[in-house]
């Protein structure tokens, strides 16, 4: 695993905007950062892929355990929703996607930091933007060299496969709902909608506040008062349950993506549970409900974008973030520092789509905690160790 | 083993302008289209305020709206 510095493509902003990435910069600093990329070796991609499949198996076993042992309350799921979750699991309701965030340095086994199982974003960047970047970069190589490099990224094809399956089994229409005022959320659901359309589904997008509840029909409805049979929501379950229409969730026959059973996996209480169930796994860090030794990370169970994280090393707090989640229950995970490349700290996002480990996205921060200002940096992998990493020519 | 997408075609995300354009589409456009099918059909006519209760007091002929969306400004994770 290396960090390779390379010039950005001339006109990169226009290029990525034309591919749908409107949030390419934050406060005039690039969020999409193609002035470098991470180069993996094939064996490292194998290791990340194997880890992701194994983690997915462990997560599904953990859900089964929580439901069979009736431990839903430990995951802050209110009692009126327990049957809702259990039924969705027993019906084997579909999942589209999830993203494991991993520590990986190319030498040790990848370690799970958290699982973004319910509302993962950075999907467009991972699936589309870095794919087009890789084609542009590899195009600069001699034809006989191009086959020496590739990108671990079949997300786009896997998403269309997923929608094709869902379309065949659940009818031909899906409604997307999100906070459409938030550009990143709108981009994410628009890209997912794009892949659903390519799978032949009829689609529409609503702001989450526009989802209606018809009390007489006991149905969630769209703006034309039509029943919504299948609703993809980019909006966390822990918020939906506690809002005004929350009590209606178990009453309606709408099917949801991600499904209700994903509530168990998107709560960081998953981390101590995985350690309880799989303490010998090389991919699982020790985690508990109280501090672990003198070096650990404290995480609120529903924290997003690295908010309210504290890192304690040898009894000293070495990094922390503010945020909106300071009043939540917390878990503690053994401190496993991110590797450092040129003063940058990458986290590997490993995507699961339709049950397949099928792509990576790298978020790079300036510190040990990955936050909403961490940059998305593309990647390649090398099939032949002797191949020289490609770089663009510097601008004249 | 092939590990990368072979080709990417985008029907909705093809350009930023198209996206902005479809975000401006009106509700009427959508209602006429029966779940879209083209690049339209995003309702961004503003967040719905209030929040009706699902447990009563709602007409049988119209849905209550605004019951979701009060918590967060973004779901990014």
3D architecture notes:
- The complex is a heterodimer of chains A (396) and B (77).
- Chain A has 396 residues and is an alpha+beta fold.
- In chain A, 28% of the residues lie in helices and 26% in strands.
- Chain A has helices at 12-18, 42-68, 82-90, 123-138, 143-146, 155-170, 183-198, 237-240, 263-266, 270-277, and strands at 2-5, 25-26, 29-30, 36-41, 97-103, 111-116, 149-150, 173-178, 202-207, 212-214, 219-221, 230-234, 255-257, 287-288, 296-300, 310-313, 316-320, 330-334, 345-353, 356-365, 375-377, 379-382.
- In chain A, strands 6-5-19-20-21 form a five-stranded antiparallel sheet. In chain A, strands 14-18-15-16-17 form a five-stranded antiparallel sheet. Chain A has a four-stranded mixed sheet with strand order 1-4-22-7.
- In chain A, α8 (237-240) links the parallel β12 and β13.
- In chain A, α6 packs across α7 (183-198).
- Chain A is globular and about 70 Å long.
- With 77 residues, chain B is an all-alpha fold.
- Chain B is built from two helices and one strand.
- Chain B has helices at 16-23, 27-33, and one strand at residues 64-65.
- The longest helix of chain B is centred in the first third of the chain and has 8 residues, at 16-23.
- The radius of gyration of chain B is 18 Å and the shape is elongated.
- At the A-B interface, α4, α6, β8, α7 and β9 of A face α1, α2 and β1 of B.
- β10 (212-214) of chain A pairs antiparallel with β1 of chain B, so a sheet runs across the interface.
């Amino acid at each position: 695993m290396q960090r390779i510095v390379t010039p950005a493509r001339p006109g990169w902003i226009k290029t990525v905007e034309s591919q749908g990435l409107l949030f390419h910069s934050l406060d005039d600093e690039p969020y999409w950062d193609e002035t470098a990329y991470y180069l993996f070796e094939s064996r490292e991609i194998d290791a990340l892929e194997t880890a992701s499949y194994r983690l997915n198996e462990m997560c599904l076993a953990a859900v089964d355990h929580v439901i069979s042992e009736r431990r839903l309350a430990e995951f802050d799921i209110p009692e009126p929703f327990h049957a809702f979750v259990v039924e969705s699991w027993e019906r084997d309701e579909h999942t589209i996607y999830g993203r494991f965030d991993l520590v990986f340095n190319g030498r040790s086994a990848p370690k799970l930091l958290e699982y973004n199982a319910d509302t993962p974003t950075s999907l467009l960047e991972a699936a589309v933007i870095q794919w087009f970047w890789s084609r542009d970069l590899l195009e600069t190589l001699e034809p006989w060299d191009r086959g020496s490099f590739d990108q671990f990224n079949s997300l786009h094809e896997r998403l269309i496969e997923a929608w094709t399956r869902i379309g065949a089994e659940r009818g031909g229409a899906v409604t997307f709902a999100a906070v459409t005022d938030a550009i990143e959320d709108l981009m994410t659901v628009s890209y997912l909608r794009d892949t659903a359309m390519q799978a032949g589904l009829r689609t529409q997008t609503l702001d989450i506040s526009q989802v209606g509840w018809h009390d007489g029909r006991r149905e969630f409805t769209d703006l034309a008062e039509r029943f919504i049979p299948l609703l993809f929501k980019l909006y966390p379950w822990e918020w939906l349950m506690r809002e005004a229409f929350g009590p209606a969730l178990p009453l309606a026959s709408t099917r949801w993506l991600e499904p209700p059973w994903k509530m168990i996996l998107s709560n960081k209480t998953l981390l101590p549970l995985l350690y309880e169930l799989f303490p010998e796994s090389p991919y699982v860090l020790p985690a508990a409900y109280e501090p672990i030794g003198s070096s650990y990370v404290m995480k609120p169970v529903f924290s997003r974008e690295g908010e309210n994280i504290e890192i304690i090393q040898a009894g000293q707090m070495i990094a922390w973030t503010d945020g909106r989640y300071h009043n939540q229950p917390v878990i503690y995970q053994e401190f496993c520092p991110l590797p450092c490349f040129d003063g940058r700290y990458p986290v590997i996002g490993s995507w699961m789509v339709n049950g397949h480990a099928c792509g990576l996205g790298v978020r790079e921060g300036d510190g040990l905690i990955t936050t909403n200002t961490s940059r998305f940096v593309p990647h390649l992998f090398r099939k032949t160790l002797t191949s020289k990493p490609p770089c663009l020519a510097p601008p004249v | 083993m092939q590990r990368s997408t072979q080709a990417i075609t985008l029907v909705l995300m093809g350009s930023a302008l198209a996206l902005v354009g479809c975000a401006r589409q009106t509700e009427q456009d959508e209602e006429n289209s029966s779940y879209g099918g083209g690049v339209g059909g995003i309702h961004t006519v503003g967040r719905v305020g209030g929040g009706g209760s699902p447990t009563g007091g709602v007409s049988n002929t119209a849905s209550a709206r605004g019951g979701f969306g009060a918590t967060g400004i973004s779901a990014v994770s």
